[in-house]
Amino acid sequence: MAQDAAVPKLNFEYWLNKAVEWGQATTLESQKDVCLHLPQLQEFLHQLYETLKDVQGSAAAIQQFPLIGQLLGRLCWNPFVIGYDESQRTLMWCLCCLYSSEPQNPVELKANSWIRSLLCHLLSSSKWESNEAETSPFISALGCTSADYYCHLVKNMVFSLVAELRENQFSGLNTQRSVSASRVNAVSIFCVPLVTLPDLSPLLETLLLYHGGSPKEILCPEFLEAVNEAFLKKKISLSESAVFSLWLRHLPSLEKATLHLLGRLVSVQLNSLEEVACVIKDSLLPQAASHPAIFRVVNEIFKNALLETDGTPEVMTIIQVFTQLFLEAHQNQNKQHAFPLKAYFPCHHQPLVRALLRRPSELPTTSWSQHLKNISDMLKALVEDANISSLTDLFEIWFLVACFGEWLDIAAEQLLKAAVQPDPLLWLLAFYYCPQNGNQQRTQAMVEAEAVYSHLMMLFSCADLSLRDLEAAVHRVTRTEQCCVQHLLTHLLTSFLLFSSGGHMVAQECIYHITEATDTSKEVYSLLLRTAHRLQHHGEENQRTVKLLNELLQKLALKV
User: Fold this and answer.
1) pTM of the entire structure?
2) Are residues 301 and 290 in the same domain?
3) Exposed, middle or buried by CB within 10 Å (0-12, 13-18, 19+), for 498?
4) pLDDT the model gives residue 130
5) Are 205 and 199 within 8 A, CB to CB?
6) In terms of domains, do 224 and 315 share one?
7) Do 286 and 312 fall within a single domain?
8) Are the beta carbons of 196 and 236 closer than 8 angstroms?
9) pLDDT above 60: residue 132
10) Contact 494/453 with Cβ under 8 angstroms?
C-alpha cells in the first residue's frame, strides 16, 4: 500500500476507506500501512477536532459530517491507531465535542451512549491494556455488556482518584497527604478531553478544591481553561466553591468569565433590571466577588469596558446592578468569614466609601437629602484637593461614585420633591456628568443646571402643563453643545416629568421630542429602567408613575 502524495484536508471518505481497509490491523500489511499514515491521520484528526469545537452537539455534527460516526468508531477500535498516544488523545477530544450535555432528541441520546462506550473503551485500552478476547468471558459472567463494564470501571477509577485526593489527614492532624504535584498534574491533564462527561464531575470538583503544598499551580492550565469553558457554556454544573476556587487559581478564566457576562448582557436588549440582575446572579460573579481579589479583578475589567465603550449607558447600568448584587452577597456572608470593606476599596477615602455603601433602604427617606449632602461635601473636598493631580486619580474617584448610581438618581428626585439645599445635590450630579473641569466644563454645567432647575421648580406644582410651558428647559437641553451638560439637563427634565404634578401629561411628547432632537435615547432608556426598578419596591403611592414608566419604556425600546 503506497503512501498517497497528497491527502485532502478533512476528506472523510478517504479516511473512512482507509479505516475499512485497515479493519483492526490484524495483518502485517495493514499494520505497516497504519504506521505509514499515522502522521497524516494525526494531522487530519487535529483539524477535525478544531472544526468540531464550534459544532453544537452530535445531531449538528452528523448533519454536517454524515460519515463521522463510522470513521471515529472504526479508528477507536484499531489497536495500531490508538496505540499511538497522540491519536488516542485527539480521538477522545473529538468524541467529547460530539457529546451533548443536554440531549434534545433520541439521536443525541443514542449518540451520547455510543460516545460513552467508545470513551470507556479508549480509557480501558490505555489504562489497563485490557484485551477484549480475554476479558469478554469474565464480563459475560458478570451479566453485563462490555460498555456497562467499562462505565463502571471509569466510575470506580474516578471514585479512587477522588478518595486519594480527599484523604488529607494523618491521625487527625490537618496535614496534606504526600500526593505528589506531578501526580495531581497528570490527573488534571487526563481530564482535559473529558470534562463534560457526567461521571467525571466529582473528580473535577475535587481537583478544583485541591491545594497541595506547592507554591506553584499544580493543575495544568489546559484543564482549568477547559473546565471554565464548559462551565460558561453550561455544559457542566459545578458547586459555587469549586467555581470560586477555579477563578482564584486561574486569572485568565476569571477574565474570560467577566467578559462572557458583559458580552451576554450587551448583545441583547433586556427589558428590566430584574432581567439584568438574573443574568448577573446566574454568572456567580457577584457571589465570587465576596473575595476581594476577585472583586478587584472584575472591577478593573469593568473600568476598561467603560473606557473602551466611551461610558455607554448599558455598561454603566450593568456595573451598577453588579455592585448592588455584590453588596447583597457580602452582607449575606457569615460575619466571621467576611472581609472588611476596606479590602475591596483599599485606595479610596473610607468615609466616602462607607457613605456610598449605605443602601437607600437602610435610611428613612427623610434622611436621604442630608446623606446626599454629606456625600457631595466629601466628594467636593476630595476633587478640589490639590493632591488630585492626575486624570487617573480623578477617574478612580468618579468610578467609585458611578458604581453607586442609585444615589445619583435619588439626588435628582430629591431636588424636585424635597425641601433641600439645591447646590450640593446639583454639584453632585454635575460632577457625575462632567468629572473634569477643563475649560470650566463643570462650572458651566452648574450654571446650566441651576437655570433649568429654577425653571422646573416654578412649574413643579402646576397640575396642567403643556410642552410650551417647558419650552425654555427643552431649548436648553436640545441646544447645548456639550454632551455631558446635555445628559445632566436631560436627567433633571426626565425626573421632573416623572415626579411633578403635571409632568405625566406631557411626558411622552416631551421625551419623544428630546430624544429625536438629541442623541440621548440610550441614556433616557437606562434612567427609566433604573427608576422603574427602584419605584416598584416603594409601595402603592408610586403605581401611577410605574405605569407611566412602563409605557415610556415600551415606546422608547423601539428607538434604542
Assistant:
1) 0.77
2) yes
3) buried
4) 44
5) no
6) no
7) yes
8) yes
9) no
10) no
